[in-house]
Amino acid sequence: MSDPSTIVSSVPAVRFDAIVKRYGARAVVDGVSLDIAQGEFFALLGANGAGKTTLISMLAGLTRASAGRVQVLGRDVALDPIATRRLLGVVPQELVFDPFFTVRETLRLQSGYFGLDRNDDWIDALLHKLGLTSQAEQNMRQLSGGMKRRVMVAQALVHKPPVIVLDEPTAGVDVELRQSLWQFITELNRQGHTVLLTTHYLEEAEALCSRIGMLKLGQLVALDSTTALLSRFASTQMLFRLQAGRLPPELASRCKPDAGRLGCTVRDAAEVEQILGALRTEGCVVDELEVRRADLEDAFMQIMGRDARQAQGATKEAR
Ligand SMILES: Nc1ncnc2c1ncn2[C@@H]1O[C@H](COP(=O)(O)OP(=O)(O)OP(=O)(O)O)[C@@H](O)[C@H]1O
């Protein structure tokens, strides 16, 4: 089994090098270069059809790039498909399973593909961590959609891969599994496993991932740490209503009407205090005060809304 701690850390866990994927004349991935370092928890975000699954399929060796190279821990996916497949644990977006096997048989079979014939201790641990212990002897076809997804996750992890790839793992999954799944994946990440995640749940990406790449029409339009993206593209809003008094002139130009309230952009709590002080001095009475923290969704909407070429410039800046 691959122990992530034995792998040389300067080699990127995943390298996409000038990747192009064409279907006919159309490039659905259009010149993506991206390194994901070992031990990172990385999110690849983008609207439907942006090219996320296509990139992951090339990483997993399921689709060939039209141009460029994909590497896993320094090994080329096209030249060394078996070795790279062993280094990866891919949880696909689709539920792919054999309906006639039980959950345990499915996991034993998957272990067998990796030459692991005595893997029951780890299989039991996976079943436990993913809340599947009581379903272990059930046939796959008897499971609910969410339970099948749990098995997909367990299946990807039977060989303890150093690089874990999750393509929308929480789509259609209940809150309990989301929490237990993220707890488990975070634990694996802390042990040194690299995690590459695609999701449409931006709050999950914001909470879990230290770095984020955003794809738009097959191009990488942003690549930076989560903190940097938030501070560069998202702003905190202070929203309030005036019960009495009028806005002082220095605030009149800063505060804009926002659904029956007044809203202005602030950098931090000190600025909120400063504005409240100015309002008090002017004799204003404030009610319904809300400070809306900037989130990844704000950053995402701004980046996706910009002109693609301008955004590409921002990506280069970010590197
Ligand atoms: N086999 C194929 N033949 C032709 N076009 C394809 C094929 N596979 C994918 N595409 C196209 O490539 C584009 C990127 O698809 P992809 O599934 O990678 O997007 P995605 O970012 O994963 O989207 P989603 O968030 O919906 O999963 C889409 O326009 C899709 O229709």
Question: What report would you give on this structure?
Answer:
This protein is of the alpha/beta class and 319 residues long. The protein has 2 domains: 10-230, Rossmann fold, CATH 3.40.50; 236-292, no CATH class. Helices cover 37% and strands 28% of the residues. The protein is built from 12 helices and 14 strands. It has helices at residues 52-59, 81-87, 103-113, 120-129, 145-157, 175-190, 202-208, 226-233, 249-252, 269-281, 296-305, 308-318, and strands at 14-23, 26-36, 41-46, 67-72, 75-76, 88-91, 163-167, 194-198, 211-216, 219-225, 236-244, 256-258, 261-266, 285-292. The strands form 3 sheets. It has a 6-stranded mixed sheet with strand order 6-7-8-3-9-10, with helices on both faces. The radius of gyration is 24 Å and the shape is elongated. It binds adenosine-5'-triphosphate.
Secondary-structure topology with pairs:
Blueprint: E1 14-23, E2 26-36, E3 41-46, H1 52-59, E4 67-72, E5 75-76, H2 81-87, E6 88-91, H3 103-113, H4 120-129, H5 145-157, E7 163-167, H6 175-190, E8 194-198, H7 202-208, E9 211-216, E10 219-225, H8 226-233, E11 236-244, H9 249-252, E12 256-258, E13 261-266, H10 269-281, E14 285-292, H11 296-305, H12 308-318
Parallel strand pairs: 3-8, 3-9, 6-7, 7-8
Antiparallel strand pairs: 1-2, 1-4, 4-5, 9-10, 11-13, 11-14, 12-13
Helix pairs in contact: 3-5, 8-11
The chain binds adenosine-5'-triphosphate (ATP).
